[in-house]
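Changelog-adjacent note: as of this version, every example in the card shows the full chain rather than a window. The one below runs 207 residues end to end.
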Amino acid sequence: MSGRGIYVETTICADVDAVWRATQDPRAHVRWDVRFTRIMPVDKTQDGATRFTYERRVPGHVVRGTGVSIGEHDRPDGTRTSALRFHTRDRMSPIRSGRGYWRYVPVEGGTRFITGYDYDAGWGMLDVVVRPLLGWATAWSFDRLRLWIESDDPPERWPLWSVAWWWRPDRPRATRCRRRPAYGKRTELVRSAPATLAALPDPASPS
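Full-length structure tokens:
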């Protein structure tokens, strides 16, 4: 991943199992993550990774793509990881292909939930606008997830346009999330990525 990768981190007052369930179930995932409308598992690879297709509905169009992911549930240090790669040929998508990970770290009082990802831009120079927006959308979705797990507040209660509900201080806010690693540089995203990411097949290649 490049030094322009996207990093988001939040701490959720819940155990790792609760965060894992809300993020690894495709039906639960699309409830809180504004970046996806639908995620559909397809099959398993020989190494146990899951192939999937995804959709993102935008006005007048549905962006469709493919991906592959694998999770590590039982690591010696008590953390968990999930790595994925994804790809689309849809010219309406600002992303062509990407790769990233989730990391689940038990901490006192809860779970630190982290993502790092990078992608090949689909809209050329317009990525200078798209990339910050995607970073914001990721952080806003993470806070939406946190509210769901901590207070059983259904994600559907907070549609994307709730960002304008200034009179609701309890609404999801991207600003509650850390947007840079504690060690300061996004170039360190490579160091933080799980080894499983490098082993994943390219979803753009024939199975």
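Structural remarks: The beta strands are 6-12, 38-44, 50-58, 61-72, 80-87, 95-107, 110-121.
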